[in-house]
Design brief:
Blueprint (H helix, E strand, L loop, with lengths): L12 H6 L5 E3 L8 E3 L3 H13 L4 E6 L4 H12 L5 E3 L9 H7 L7 E5 L7 H9 L3 E4 L7 H4 L2 H9 L7 E5 L11 E5 L4 E9 L2 E8 L2 E7 L6 H15 L21 E5 L2 E6 L5 H13 L4 E6 L8 H13 L5 E5 L3 H6 L7 E4 L2 H9 L7 E5 L7 H11 L1
Parallel strand pairs: 1-2, 3-5, 3-6, 4-5, 6-7, 7-8, 8-9, 13-17, 14-15, 14-17, 15-16
Antiparallel strand pairs: 9-10, 10-11, 12-13
Helix pairs in contact: 2-4, 3-8, 9-10, 12-13
Length: 396
């Protein structure tokens, strides 16, 4: 049990035992059996996590402004076909989730893939002390959480702390000039792992991954340009682990994205791209790029990008300028901050700001004759999936 700001987990020990828990840590002596008295239950969790981590052949640590969860899932899909692999569940990527993930590593695991999140300088360094990863993967650096970090320079510094640990590294080619990691392999248009010819097609995204004289063309059943950068990171990890970084990507042809992360949903005459799990300037730019590359009548539903602090207005206006120049047919906005997006769009007939998510769903229905593609995105706190849930109900 851990002590939080509002509650002390110790008070739930008895209830947990009644539900079948067979052992526990405690900071105070209790009458229940199978308890281990410790000075600090959080530190005990960390030590258990470190112990379990040391039973694993190789640990991969992943961080980045956006794309870390998708990269983790792609990597888990590939490595699970090669060895016993365990990965962070959900987004358990903070100072509690990371040691908990390590402590839950099953027996006989070869590779552990650990997602590491950050809200300020020092967070990744702290998690790195616990994870002590063998391979450090940085997937992106952008303005997400810049409000918490205080400046973009701090974001760059904070994300780069991933390279304080591990003897091998993987990162986008454009970031190599910023960092000086150990034994790097890069990916991108000009990377060691080359990414080429990415296109959005009817039922997903296609592209080519190349390393030296070997290459593979893949089609991934998601609408996401960025997915190929994430695959580049996977190829880099394969290389460091001693596997063929190209032929082992073949298994990604049957990869399925997790819900709300670029998931393709067909509802009646509508094609919904559910990317509602989260949003930051980098991932929203990627979403606009996706729609620009697609054919058909395109609708973008965008909720606020949160945690941008004093930079919020500037960054929302930047998105507005991109949308103004885009080939998106209709733009639906929700939230206080997207009002700045609205102001940057010249043709007000192609944009509307809403105060109610149900109204967005009702407005989308008006476009059914166009058989539209609708991409839904917003920060987690905006719960933009409500728009899709409402659409499902209305179209039943």
């Amino acid at each position: 049990p851990l002590k939080g700001q509002n509650a002390d987990g110790h008070q739930y020990i008895e209830d947990a035992i009644e539900k079948g828990v067979v052992g526990y840590f405690s900071e105070k002596p209790l009458d229940f059996k199978n308890g281990i008295l410790v000075k600090d239950t959080y530190q005990a969790l960390v030590e258990v996590g470190k112990h379990k981590r040391n039973q694993v052949k190789a640990v991969i640590g992943i961080t980045g402004t956006s794309g870390k969860t998708s990269t983790k899932e792609l990597m888990n899909h590939v490595l699970s076909n090669l060895a016993n692999t365990y990965a962070t569940q959900g987004n358990y990527n903070n100072e509690i989730g990371v040691p908990l993930t390590l402590a839950n590593i099953p027996e006989n695991i070869d590779f552990a893939i650990i997602e590491m999140g950050a809200g300020k300088v020092g967070d990744i360094d702290y998690l790195g002390k616990i994870v002590n990863q063998d391979i450090s993967v940085l997937v992106s650096v952008g303005h997400g959480h810049v409000g918490k970090f205080g400046s973009f320079e701090n974001v760059i510094k904070g994300k780069g702390e991933i390279f304080n640990y591990g003897n091998y590294s993987v990162l986008p080619s454009e970031l190599k000039k910023i960092y000086n990691p150990k034994n790097p392999i890069t990916y991108g248009e000009n990377g060691d792992i080359e990414i080429r010819d990415i296109k959005i097609v009817k039922d997903g995204t296609v592209g080519i991954i190349k390393y030296k004289n070997d290459k593979i063309e893949l089609k991934i059943p998601v609408y996401n340009i960025g997915v190929f950068k994430n695959i580049g990171a996977v190829a880099g990890v394969l290389y460091h682990l001693g596997y063929d970084p190209i032929k082992n990507l073949e298994v990604l042809k049957d990869f399925k994205s997790s819900s709300q992360r670029g998931e393709i949903i067909k509802i009646g005459d509508f094609t919904i791209i559910d990317d509602s799990y989260n949003a930051n300037p980098l991932s929203v730019k990627n979403a606009i790029d996706i729609l620009n590359r697609m054919e058909g009548f395109k609708i973008f539903v965008l909720g606020d990008m949160l945690e941008l602090g004093e930079y919020s207005q500037e960054l929302h206006r930047e998105i507005g300028k991109l949308l103004n120049a885009s080939y998106i047919d209709y733009i639906m906005l929700y939230g206080n901050e997207t009002k700045y997006v609205f102001e940057e769009i010249d043709d007000k007939s192609r944009v509307k700001h809403f105060d109610n998510k149900d109204d967005i769903a009702e407005d989308i229905l008006k476009f059914s004759d166009f058989q539209p593609i609708v991409l839904v995105k917003g920060s987690r706190g905006m719960k933009m999936e409500d728009v899709i849930l409402k659409l499902r109900v209305m179209l039943k």
